[in-house]
Amino acid sequence: MDKLNWEFTGMEHDLESILLTGEQIQSRVRELANLIAEDYMADGGMDARGPVVVCILKGAVMFYADLIRFMPIPISIDFISISSYGSKTASSGEVSLKKDLDGKIEGRVVLIVEDIVDSGLTLSYLLRMLSARNPRSLKVAALLDKPSRRRVPFQADYIGFAIEDKFVVGYGLDFDQLYRNLPMIGVLKPECYEP
Ligand code: PRP
């Protein structure tokens, strides 16, 4: 097992470049976790249970797990699953709910955690849906932002990195369900997704 590394498995060879190393990601995620925690504490708006931090499955799992691990405040966790229709490399913007939150969010402080904002359609849909449940506040933290891809206006409250319009995988982001477990984020070689 000691010999097993990304080089050896060959997954890294499918990347044409590494956009963000695991170390860069970890460092930014720690900064964001502290910033978010400070904002909630300064707000005076937290109850004893703290915010409900919501993970949007599946792409956000890595970011979510690291972010909450470094947030030094009480939180509760919940998960939501959205299905967006489209090709394997771009969403069509049509979204539907596959798994709802387990808990109620009325009157609660809520932070939604997402891996990437692309067209903005997924988060617009989610914010509309969750706002209707009357949370005390509703904010969004997204690891990556591709502002040039927006089809609807959308601005996350917290962003890890703004990136160009390249097809990226790793650290939760997939192509056809692969590459999510890479610790870094890289640009996928076109021959890996073009027919
Ligand atoms: C991806 C990503 C976001 C959404 C962003 O999800 O995780 O949820 O697309 O795109 P948008 O801003 O254009 O709506 P995907 O449907 O690929 O599912 P996954 O999270 O399971 O990978």
What features would you describe in this structure?
Strand 5 (109-117), helix 4 and strand 6 (137-145) form a beta-alpha-beta unit. The protein has a 6-stranded mixed sheet, with helices on both faces. It is α/β, with parallel strands linked by helices and 195 residues long. The chain starts with 5 loop residues before the first helix and ends in a 7-residue tail after the last strand. The longest helix is centred in the first third of the chain and has 22 residues, at 22-43. The chain has one domain (21-168): 3-Layer(aba) Sandwich (Rossmann fold), CATH 3.40.50.2020. It contains 4 helices and 9 strands; from the N terminus they run H-E-H-E-H-E-E-E-H-E-E-E-E. The chain binds 1-O-pyrophosphono-5-O-phosphono-alpha-D-ribofuranose.
Please give the structural blueprint.
Elements: H1 6-9, E1 15-20, H2 22-43, E2 52-57, H3 61-69, E3 76-86, E4 91-99, E5 109-117, H4 121-131, E6 137-145, E7 158-162, E8 168-169, E9 185-188
Helix pairs in contact: 2-3
Bound molecules: 1-O-pyrophosphono-5-O-phosphono-alpha-D-ribofuranose.
